[in-house]
TrEMBL record:
<keyword id="KW-0378">Hydrolase</keyword>
<dbReference type="InterPro" id="IPR014343">
    <property type="entry name" value="Ectoine_EhuA"/>
</dbReference>
<keyword id="KW-0029">Amino-acid transport</keyword>
<feature type="region of interest" description="Disordered">
    <location>
        <begin position="1"/>
        <end position="21"/>
    </location>
</feature>
<keyword id="KW-0067">ATP-binding</keyword>
<dbReference type="InterPro" id="IPR050086">
    <property type="entry name" value="MetN_ABC_transporter-like"/>
</dbReference>
<dbReference type="GO" id="GO:0016887">
    <property type="term" value="F:ATP hydrolysis activity"/>
</dbReference>
<keyword id="KW-0472">Membrane</keyword>
<feature type="compositionally biased region" description="Low complexity">
    <location>
        <begin position="7"/>
        <end position="21"/>
    </location>
</feature>
<dbReference type="InterPro" id="IPR003593">
    <property type="entry name" value="AAA+_ATPase"/>
</dbReference>
<keyword id="KW-1003">Cell membrane</keyword>
<dbReference type="InterPro" id="IPR030679">
    <property type="entry name" value="ABC_ATPase_HisP-typ"/>
</dbReference>
<dbReference type="Pfam" id="PF00005">
    <property type="entry name" value="ABC_tran"/>
</dbReference>
<dbReference type="InterPro" id="IPR003439">
    <property type="entry name" value="ABC_transporter-like_ATP-bd"/>
</dbReference>
<keyword id="KW-0547">Nucleotide-binding</keyword>
<protein>
    <submittedName>
        <fullName>Amino acid ABC transporter ATP-binding protein, PAAT family</fullName>
        <ecNumber>3.6.3.21</ecNumber>
    </submittedName>
</protein>
<comment type="similarity">
    <text>Belongs to the ABC transporter superfamily.</text>
</comment>
Length: 271
């Protein structure tokens, strides 16, 4: 179950709840000659909701994409439930794991992107059952039943047979959230899920995410510029700049009494 109160752990330390859901160990990511992340060490406890904040280009989305294996690590290791995700260490050397092993690990992780990435030629229901049936091997009837239940959960029960192009941006993003949940993920990654929406549609999507946070024990690692949302759903907030953690702590501490001048400057610009 998720922590019952906001908790803070220093970067690189293991949560007292046992094996971390996610662990970053000496993680480095470079694009060409540009280093985006360097010596990144932190953990996310099972059921914990951690929000990454900071200016654009600070490496936040790259962190999510590394966990989802959409980007390759330049150095270091990522562990999911204590197991290496893409690389392990053998005889003192960093060794890449077989792709089959990594793919099996990522079935436990769901991600919702800024853009909805729905298949326009499929109905809403077909979008949601595609991965459970063809990746998890779930019987179609079972997948359909669960998909319809998820559509009800996100307030779109009547849209199962519509195509995405006939939905608003907020509705499409709620379908994308349902699609991610259909894989029964242990970890949910959320990357600026409201940034592509018109302002009047943001509330509906955030409402769905608040409900997920309150009614499930899914571990959540999210990137957002919606500071009030971060304050409400997070157990811990981490301030990033230049690919490094400047400070972290419970939302009340970060938003009401930030210790780092860069955090204060950033928050004054977005709140």
């Amino acid at each position: 179950m998720p922590p019952t109160e906001n908790t803070s752990s220093a970067p690189g330390t293991t949560s007292t709840s046992g094996t971390p859901a996610i662990e970053f160990k000496d993680v480095e990511k470079r694009f060409g000659k540009t280093t985006v992340l360097k010596d990144l060490n932190f953990t996310v406890a099972p059921g914990e909701r951690v929000t990454l904040i900071g200016p654009s280009g600070s490496g936040k989305t790259t962190i999510l994409r590394l966990v989802m294996t959409l980007e390759e690590l330049t150095g270091g290791f990522i562990f999911v439930d204590g197991k290496p995700l893409t690389h392990t260490e053998k005889n003192g050397k960093r060794v890449e794991l077989p792709s089959k092993t990594t793919r099996a690990m990522t079935t436990r992780i769901g991600m919702v992107f800024q853009q909805f990435n729905l298949f326009p030629n499929m109905t809403v229901l077909e979008n949601i059952i595609e991965a459970p049936v063809h990746v998890l091997g779930k019987p179609k009837a079972e997948a359909v039943k669960e998909a319809k239940s998820l559509l009800e959960k996100v307030g779109l029960g009547e849209k199962a047979d519509e195509h995405p192009t006939r939905l608003s941006g907020g509705q499409q993003q709620r379908v994308a959230i349902a699609r991610a949940l259909a894989m029964s993920p242990e970890i949910l990654l959320l990357d600026e899920v409201t940034s592509a929406l018109d302002p009047e549609l943001v509330g509906d999507v955030l409402g769905v995410l608040r409900d997920i946070a309150e009614t499930t024990d899914i571990t959540m690692l999210l990137v957002t510029h919606e500071m009030q949302f971060a304050r409400e759903v997070s157990h811990r907030v981490m301030m990033f700049d230049g690919g490094q953690v400047l400070e972290e702590g419970p939302p009340d501490q970060i938003f009401n009494n930030p210790q780092h001048e860069r955090t204060r400057t950033f928050l004054s610009s977005v709140q």
